[in-house]
Amino acid sequence: MTLKNGQTASLGWLEQADLAEVIEALNSVIREQKSLLILNEINDLEFEHQWFAEEIDLGMRYLVARVGGKVVGGASLTPLSGKRSHIAEYGIYVIDSHRDLGLGTLLTKAFVEIARKSRFEIIQLSVFSNNKRAMHIYGKCGFKKCGKLKNDVKFADGTYADRILMEQALPR
């Protein structure tokens, strides 16, 4: 896909060999402390290799976005279990320098289609209420607001954000 700045982006499935580079990109977003629930940077590569193997065995799908061969974002679809096995949870991140170029939309649309082909009935996600960019993308890709957790997130400066729950039903 050609991005709004003229660069070409590619998507590929996450492989064990990508983990160090993916963690580096993800850590840059964690350090911002703006859009993820994760507080601390990831620094245990051995643990992440174990996590990756276990999650893939449980059915997680994870796409890596690259521009110029460099990881600039990623997204995952994680199946729930038991009475919620018809649902998958969606998560995404894009590094600061590559936002507003169409990557979020590309990844989200790709996972809606992957979820549909995988026969999930619903995709769910949560987003901070102050993350207007992400909410715009999700709405554009067919997600609807379905709930709100008031003051669910507290930032280091003492301010709060609601966590907005969104979902998309995937008709069969």
Q: What structural class results from the helix and strand content?
A: alpha+beta
* CATH homologous superfamily annotation: Gcn5-related N-acetyltransferase (GNAT)
**CATH fold-level name:** Aminopeptidase
Strand order of the largest sheet: 1-2-3-4-5-7-6
SSE string? EHHEEEHEHEE
What's the number of domains? 1
Q: Please tell me the CATH architecture by its name.
A: 3-Layer(aba) Sandwich
Q: Termini distance? A: 28 Å
Instruction: Look at the structure and give the mean pLDDT.
Output: 95
Radius of gyration: 16 Å
Helix content: 25-40%
Task: Give your account of this protein's structure.
The chain is of the alpha+beta class and 172 residues long. The chain contains four helices and seven strands, in the order βααβββαβαββ. It has a single domain, classed as Aminopeptidase. Helix content is 30%, strand content 34%. β2 and β3 form a beta hairpin.
